[in-house]
Write a structure and sequence with these properties.
Layout: H1 2-11, H2 14-19, H3 21-31, E1 36-46, E2 49-63, H4 65-71, E3 79-84, E4 92-99, E5 105-113, H5 116-120
Antiparallel strand pairs: 1-2, 2-5, 3-4, 4-5
Length: 122
């Protein structure tokens, strides 16, 4: 309990963190123009009741322009790997990678989704 209170004091709570995702993406795009970002939210329901003016984080995708440009010179194969995120909300971090002509690995795009199968369907 003390550890959780200390984490909240330092990093704030989970809800505040998710509310800052759009600001983080805006900052990313202002620092690195042409960065591709997409944040998806879904309506929030309390049981069966829709909560007006409230949405819930669903998924986020981003790719840097240098990676998009470099991908044009890679082998035509993409590998997607994921790792589970542990914590209050869970989810998965997905990373798309490719291989260039020298067999070097290039990170192409990133996503945070609910699960591997849900993230790929949209």
């Amino acid at each position: 309990m003390a550890k959780q209170k200390a984490i909240v004091q330092i990093y704030r709570n989970w809800e505040e963190s998710y509310n800052k995702v759009s600001k983080l993406l805006q900052a990313l795009q202002s620092c690195c123009p042409r960065t591709i970002c997409e944040l998806k939210a879904v309506p929030y329901y309390d049981g069966h009741l829709l909560v007006r003016h409230c949405s819930m984080f669903d998924k986020v995708y981003w790719a840097f322009p240098s990676s998009v440009e470099a991908f044009k010179h890679c082998k035509p194969f993409i590998f997607v790997n994921g790792t589970h995120l542990f914590g209050r909300y869970g989810g998965m971090l997905l990373i798309a990678v490719a291989q260039d002509g020298n067999s070097n690995i290039l990170l192409i795009a990133f996503a945070i989704v609910e699960s591997e199968s849900h993230g790929r369907s949209s």
